[in-house]
């Protein structure tokens, strides 16, 4: 091959630069997907825990005020005595003598 060494070096460095740009783009895409998935998980966790709600005070943002749960939400939660009624399992059969 009668290619000048300078041109060959220029072509090799250009190809390596293009490969590095593509790799950095793919890494950025993976990072954005990871960040999106983790923020979605955090949002879902916050939605699943309605017992503790925070009310922000515009004057004092460092000390949040927590609201108690709503009355309807408390009524849905069974009491300790009601747990026995919910967990009604059939009694085991009597032992045969």
Summarize the structure.
This protein has helices spanning 5-48, 71-76, 82-86, and strands spanning 53-55, 65-67. The protein has 97 residues and is mainly alpha-helical. The chain crosses the membrane at residues 6-31.
Number of helices: 3
**Through-space gap between termini:** 99 Å
Query: What is the percentage of strand-forming residues?
Result: 5-15%
Q: How many extended strands?
A: 2
Pfam families: Mtp (PF03821)
Transmembrane segments: 6-31
Keywords: Membrane, Transmembrane, Transmembrane helix
InterPro entries: LAPTM4/5 (IPR004687)
Describe the structure.
The structure is a single chain. This protein has 97 residues and is mainly α. The protein has a domain at 1-49. The chain has three helices and two strands, in the order αββαα. The chain has helices at residues 5-48, 71-76, 82-86; strands at 53-55, 65-67. It has a two-stranded antiparallel ribbon with strand order 1-2.
Labels describing this entry:
elongated, transmembrane helix, 97 residues, LAPTM4/5, membrane, 57% helix, mainly alpha, transmembrane, two-stranded antiparallel sheet
């Amino acid at each position: 091959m009668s290619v000048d060494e300078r041109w060959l070096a220029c072509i090799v460095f250009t190809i390596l630069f293009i490969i590095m740009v593509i790799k950095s783009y793919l890494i950025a895409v993976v990072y954005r997907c990871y960040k999106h998935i983790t923020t979605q998980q955090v949002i879902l966790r916050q939605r699943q825990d309605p017992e503790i709600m925070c009310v922000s005070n515009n004057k004092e943002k460092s000390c949040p005020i927590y609201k108690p749960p709503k009355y309807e939400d408390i009524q849905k939660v069974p009491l300790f005595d009601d747990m026995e009624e919910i967990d009604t399992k059939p009694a085991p059969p009597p032992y045969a003598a």
